[in-house]
Amino acid sequence: MNNLSLYGWNDSLFQLKQTSQYKHLLHGRVAAVNKTNYEVIAESDRLLCELAGNLLYGKSSFELPCTGDWIIYQPFDDNKGIIVDILPRKHTLYRRKSGTLSERQTIASHVDIAFIVQSLDANFSVRRTERFMVQIMEENIQPILILTKSDLEFNQHQIDESLKHIGRQIPIFFTSILSPETILPVRKVIRQGQSVVFVGSSGVGKSSLINALCQRKVFSTSDISKSSGKGRHTSTRREMVLMDQSGILIDTPGVREFGLASDNGEVLADIFDVADFDQSCRFENCKHIEEPGCAVKEAVNNGLLEAEVYNSYLKLRKESWYFSTSEHEKRKRDKSFAKISEEAKRIKRR
């Protein structure tokens, strides 16, 4: 038997279930997504579930169940079920689907904390951390930066300087799986029932960190490729694991690209310290590029705001604008198509 409260089940989710027409059926949480089925943690056991036809054919790909979703299912046979409903999502981490302008891909839902995992080697990138932060904070998820492989040689002063604006926003931990004392502070921030998703590029040590936090081998790991100097992909899917007497950890495959699926300018301004200056701009709708009386540009010129941070802000703001504009156009097209379909149905009924 599984105690679902350990997996995050609470009164709020119970109330959401009461709004479903299938509230009399059993519920569980999606632990992993396979090509043709879903692994679900239920009170009775771990089940393999398939989708009911109305979900399979009636929802877009990003609306289908993802790791972390709470679902309602109809059991059949031994340890099998049919998913008939998905509870409304909260705190869902998305990214823009590769090769698209406005399509979103779900990474995990009902997430409390996101560990942005970066390694202190050639893979380290402040710009990548900023990108993750924007998307995570968009969904009111708590981001925490975990720097792994601190046993390697690295320039502490250079790292600290590059992360100053990030350190003012979120906690930062330096860790090494070779030094258990560096893992303990990370373990302490995870409380029972909380869901923590791990994001980062391949080879930064997400799976190794999860194994260290759980104090047992949960996921397989591999060494850095000698030919490319990059990490090999060990995680091939998003998968959930329960820590003993603690929270829920969700491992994710490494990503080379993390496209923004966000249009929240306030989050961007906060992360990049622009919010500290933009209230003093001459114009309320200042774009912080060439407008006269721009306090942000003045801060850059005076060295109060680093030029690299400012340029990263402009780049991500532009990407966010493209996403929101493309998504708006897509919604307009969908509404137009829906109107045409309704009109066609009315004509057919005449």
TrEMBL record:
Chain sites annotated for binding Zn(2+): C281, C286, H288, C294
Domain CP-type G: 98-258
Keyword Metal-binding: yes
UniProt subcellular location: Cytoplasm
Keywords: Cytoplasm, GTP-binding, Hydrolase, Metal-binding, Nucleotide-binding, Ribosome biogenesis, RNA-binding, rRNA-binding, Zinc
Pfam families (UniProt xref): RsgA_GTPase
Official protein name in the record: Small ribosomal subunit biogenesis GTPase RsgA
Organism, as annotated: Polluticaenibacter yanchengensis
